[in-house]
Each structure stands twice: as C-alpha cells, then as structure tokens.
Design brief:
By secondary structure, this protein is an alpha+beta fold. It has eight helices and 14 strands. Helix 1 packs antiparallel against helix 2 and helix 5 packs across helix 8. The protein binds 6-O-phosphono-alpha-D-fructofuranose (P6P).
C-alpha cells in the first residue's frame, strides 16, 4: 500500500535537515497550510454562500476588492499574526507594513503574501491562488520594520503558493527542492503528490497576454513571432498568475509579463508575486528574470514595486534576455 505523507509530516521530516531549527519555521508553514484549507473551503463554496462579487473597496494595486480577497486577507493576518512567530507582515491588500498585534510575542520571521491572486477570475470559476514568501528578520529585536520586509528574493527562507483549482494544492520550497501537496478533503490533510518537482526541459507553452503585443519591447515581439513561425509551442494564458505558473512548473514552458510603454515596470509585484515564483522556478531548475537581471537579486525599495517577469525554462529566459539587450 502506498504510504501517504502529509504536509505536516514532510515539514517535520524536512526540519531534520536543519538541525539548528527550533521548529518555528515548521510551525509557520503549517499555519500557512491551515490558512490554505480555510480559504479553499470558502473558494469552493463561494457561489453557494453568495460571497462572489465585490466589496466596493479598491486595494493598493487599484484592483477592486472581492469579498473572497478580504476573507483571505483576514485569514492570513489572524492565523499568522496569532502565533508569535512573526515580527511583521506585508500584503497586496495593505498599503504599509502589517504589525503584529500588541501583546503578542515577536518572532524572528516576516511573511509577505498575496492572499488571493487572480481574484478577478473568481466569478468565472477559474483557478486562483495565494502566494507567500517567508524571510528571517534582519533587525535584532522589537517590532518588525520595512528593512525586514525589503529583502532581495535570494534571502527567502521559504516560498510557495496554494492553488485553488480542480483540486487545492500547496506547492512550496524551503531551498531543498519544490514539493507539491494535494488537499484530500476526506481527511482534511495536504498529502504529498509531487515530489521534488523539476521543470520539464521541453518548451511546451508560451504564456503572455497578447493584448499588449504592440506595446512590447521589440525583443519580446521577435521572440513570440519566432515561436509562432515554428508552430510547435502552444499558447496558453489563463490570466491568473498562480494557475499560469503552476502549469509552467509542471508542463514546462515560459510565462511572461513584459514591461510595456503603458506599464514601464510591468504589472506584477516583486515582493509578493515575482520573488516567490522565482524561487520556486529556480529550485525546479528554471530561471526568472526582469529582462536584465535575476529576479532574486533585485534589491527592493518599496513594498508594492512592480517588475517585468520572464520565468520558466532556463534556455527560453536566456533567449529573451539576449533579444532584449
Ligand atoms: P492581465 C490577476 O489580476 C493578475 O494580478 C495575475 O494573477 C495575472 O497574471 C495578471 O494579473 C493578469 O493580468 O493584464 O493579463 O489581465
């Protein structure tokens, strides 16, 4: 009989690779998994519970806030802010640093997250996701500061996403490979289904919103036109980052959100979209660039800064960088 390894078992086994570990890191990952289960339950019953639709608010990105967005945001803050393992948080849904409530212990980690990315797709029942990046604090003690949050992606202690689709999956890396766990609703546990994910070498799909074609840099136009002339690589674009990255990770290919003359820094955010996806893809044998440099080496200057993103198969990212020079 096939042994079932749950996410919590995997996390605690993985903890043995970090002898100096105190178990806090494992606890945080388990708390994020709990957040994922709670959001999954709401996403999967949104239609029935009539919580589709808008709250009437607009977030820092200028996106209309969906009811599920707000629910996801509150779930992250309440669960991760409770345990005393963090000293600060940051989210797409909040303009500034999210402090840990007074009276709670202040931990040695910070968490940056997009609680529900792609939420504009909710009403069409398209896969959406939560994205997270975990860092060790850089300041000595006391409440976390912006310095603890504005760290380059290569300093991530862990990164991952939860994709709410045909099934709910928790995909993460702690720097020793990428692991995927599928939620088994019958036992309420994430179970290991994708061990040590490696990006397939073949460039199977290209994924970009071609609406922007005439605003792209010339190098991107050339790259896409060459693929079309070959006619071997399928175009796949969902418009939900977690879904597009998940497919790229499992099937191979390239995802891009280029800078355009209307969006000179692209659309996607470095801290809670680019960095996590870049760590995952790199750990899976791929690459991630802003067109000039490795995403993970960008020194952030503000929480919501945007970055162009070219991510996926190493050779394809390299080709695009050369065409953009
Ligand atoms: P566009 C969703 O709104 C999102 O933030 C990402 O999930 C997705 O990759 C991107 O925007 C899609 O943007 O301009 O193609 O609709």
């Amino acid at each position: 009989m096939k042994t079932t390894l749950t996410l919590n078992q995997h996390i605690y086994l993985d903890q043995k690779n970090h002898p100096q570990g105190t178990g806090v890191f494992s606890e945080i990952l388990s708390e994020i998994a709990l957040v994922g289960k709670i959001i999954s339950r709401e996403v999967n019953k949104a239609g029935i519970a009539e919580i589709y639709g808008l709250t009437g608010d607009v977030n820092t990105s200028g996106d209309e806030v969906q009811k599920l967005d707000q629910f996801a945001q509150n779930t992250f803050v309440n669960i991760l802010g409770y345990s005393g393992n963090l000293c600060a948080m940051a989210s797409e849904e909040e303009e500034g640093l999210i402090p840990i409530s007074a009276g709670k212990d202040l931990g040695k980690y910070v968490l940056i997250f997009d609680p529900l990315d792609g939420s504009s797709n909710i009403d069409a029942n398209v896969s959406i996701g939560s994205i997270f990046s975990l860092y060790k604090r850089v300041t000595e003690a006391g409440p976390g500061t912006l310095a603890d949050l504005l760290q380059p992606g290569y300093k991530q202690a862990a990164a991952g996403y939860i994709v709410y689709g045909a099934s709910t999956m928790f995909v993460y890396t702690a720097g020793l490979g990428v692991y995927g766990f599928t939620l088994d609703p019958s036992i309420g546990e994430f179970v290991l289904t994708h061990k040590n994910i490696k990006l397939p070498a073949v460039n199977k799909n290209y994924s970009v919103n071609e609406r922007d074609y005439y605003s792209w840099p010339e190098g991107v136009k050339t790259y896409i036109e060459d693929l079309k002339k070959e006619g071997k690589v399928a175009a796949r674009y969902i418009g939900s980052l977690v879904a597009d990255i998940h497919r790229t990770l499992l099937y191979g290919g390239i995802f891009m959100y280029p800078a355009t003359n209307k969006k000179p820094e692209g659309k996607l955010r470095l801290l809670y979209e680019g960095n996590a996806m870049a760590m995952l893809m790199t750990q899976a044998g791929g690459a991630a660039s802003n067109g000039q440099k490795n995403i993970l080496e960008i020194e952030p200057t503000e929480l919501h800064q945007r970055t162009p993103l070219y991510i996926g198969n190493q050779n394809e990212v390299k080709k695009i960088k050369q065409l953009l020079q």
